[in-house]
Amino acid sequence: MQETDFFKLSTSTALMLLVGFYGLTFLLSMLIGKKKENVDGYMVSNNAIGFGLSAASMIATWIWAASFYASATSGYRYGLSGPLHYGLWGALMILFIYPFGRRFRKLAPRAHTLAEVIQARHGTSSQLIMAVSNLIGSCISLMVNFTAAGALVSILSPLSFIQGVLIAGLGVLSYTLWSGFRASVMTDFAQLIAMILAAVVIIPLIFFNAGGTDMLAANLGNLSEQQADFFSTKAILEQGAPYFVAVLAYAIGNQTIAQRLFAVREDLIKSTFLTATLGYGAVVIGLGMLGLLALLVGLEPANGNMNNIIPQMASTYLPPFGIALFFILVVGSLSSTADSDLSALSAIVMTDVYGKNLARGKPCPKRMLWLGRITMVVATMLGVIFASLRLDILVMLVFVGALWGAIVFPVIVSFYWNRVSNKAFTWAVVSAVALFTTARFELLPLDGIVAVFFELCASLGLGVVIGLMVFAFFNRRVAIAMGVGAAIVSMPFTIGFLREYVVLLSSLTAYGVSAAVCVAISLRSNERFDFDLLAERVTSFHQDDEPAAAQPGPVSTGGGRIAAARA
Amino acid sequence: MTNMLLTGYILVWPVASAAVLVALIVALIRDMRAASRDGDSMI
After folding, report:
1. pTM
2. Which of 456-515 (A) contact B at CB < 8 A?
3. Inter-chain CB proximity B3 and A217 less than 8 Å
4. Are the Cβ atoms of A46 and B14 closer than 8 angstroms?
5. Which of A84, A158, A347, A395 has the fewest other C-beta atoms within 10 Å?
6. Touching check for B5 and chain A: CB below 8 Å?
7. Which helix (H) or strand (E) holds A560?
8. A397 and A296 together in one domain
9. Which tens digits make up the pLDDT trace of A247-256?
10. In B, residues 18-37, which contact A (CB 8 Å cutoff)?
């Protein structure tokens, strides 16, 4: 690390900011703390959170520390359109996901996790696929956020990386442990206010201190032809398209989003998601502009590390007060996501591991609550340890991305099409992950007939993505027509071309294969699921008289509903 | 003209962020009043 490139806060200032931030957040969580927490409240609050809190929490959760760095990197690499190809697609995915979210919520209004609803729909194997992908995803997110804390602290203060990781881990755990999700949502609001205020001050300050409009006029020539092109194909193919495909999977596969979906008042889902789309887009694209500015002023990232772009810009163009604001901005973003990850992990262990499996139909709410708290402590310890080891998580990230990409179609279609079976769900995911892995790691040489096969799968995947997005707002026929049309029209362009873009090829393959397998097996199925069963099977845990967990299984064959014994 | 457009392109995002912030604060205040009036907990 080229330490001379960065302004450093003093140890006392850094500690004061961290202690002040986490101290105030802890006090805020005390305002809503109850001596006896309700087990359902611990996971999804009262299922009736208002618009302000839920929208703020959605934005704060969706924005993590990597959002700033990745958006700025995109701006630095791809120029004018770069920040849009990170922030806009991330934002739009929140928008595209809400119609599906409303459907999930309507079918299972008392759900705690999406995996729980999948269990009620299909059974344990599908639930476990969903729960495991959620668990790994949240663990990785936790580790990345703690790593970001360590990096920030070590770059902008004399404190060490490990000290930064430990302070963030203990700070987040301290205010989330007792009240769980309720504390996460409550503190998200305050953290988001701090983040937005910091962004609103920092972006113009850096812009004008870097020379403002005059600097733009003088340095626009520094951009390459692609960087100066607002519709750069390089930016679309290398950044926009792969990210677009990835975040659709993220929105479905991430429990932090599902948890907020089940927590917000049902009639406020649309306004919450729309506002979250705007808020996320504005903040993340805005901070991505710092990468564009860095490109324009000719900044070279220290040690060639793109993650240093924003800290370097802050160090170069902000006064100490501004750097303190930047410090709070990053700590706020990583903490709000980390507390959501802790809440998500505890909800999955409480509901999907204990409530629906280990408890054998008789979950004890008190035991469940303590299991959630223990999960938070263990997850924080693991997050801190893995962050301290600075593990290379690329392979794990790739696999989680594949798993999420593979589950998007089966998950969504399971709640609209009554013929989708557990077998169809499971085989769709397994085969999609297998073929994704083959393409992503080039286990077979991507040329000749093999490459054409994967390009056909990817074309199908493109059709699936387009079809799902259209289905979010239009009816099934329009969606199928658009999806099939997109797949057919794209084929002449993808065949012989997409093999050069392996990330995009493999991601789209996951979508295409999972959809093809799911549809093929479902069409051969005689099962007809009665969606009304979901609300009966997915209920609150906090019931004094009877156990809440129910076993999946009752399906109709040939149109008639088969009654099934329930716990 | 291009430079002014580019300046607007860079600075419009903090303005939009501020607008979202105002909307969220107003909504929170309304929720707090409603909760207080109904004797409910907000969360």
Report:
1. 0.91
2. none
3. yes
4. no
5. A395
6. no
7. strand A560-561
8. no
9. 888 888 889 9
10. 18-21, 23-31, 34-35
Question: Rounded to an integer, what distance in angstroms lies between the CA atom of residue A263 and that of residue A182?
Answer: 10
**Range of A485's domain?**
392-550
Between CA A266 and CA A189 the distance in angstroms is: 20
On whether both A403 and A387 belong to a single domain, the answer is no
Mutate to test the interface with B, among A37, A205, A283, A313 (most CBs of B within 10 A): A283
Residues 6+ apart with CB under 8 A from A87: A67, A71, A280, A281, A284, A285, A288
Structure tokens at B18: 């501020």
Residues A375, A240: one domain?
Answer: yes
Task: Mark which of A342, A361, A391 sits at the end of a domain.
Answer: A391
Residue A31 sits at the chain B interface (C-beta within 8 Å): no
- Residues A414, A386 within the same domain: no
* DSSP per position, A375-411: HHHHHHHHHHHHHHHT---HHHHHHHHHHHHHHHHHH
> Which residues face A38 on adjacent strands?
none
Q: What is the DSSP letter of A563?
A: P
**Where do the structural domains in chain B lie, given as residue ranges?**
1-43
| Stronger pLDDT, A3 or A336, i.e. the higher one | A336
Number of domains composing chain A: 2
Tell me the per-residue pLDDT of A152-173, one tens digit each, with 9 for 90 and over: 999 999 999 999 999 999 999 9
Percent of chain A with pLDDT strictly greater than 70: 94
Domain stops at, among A391, A406, A423: A391
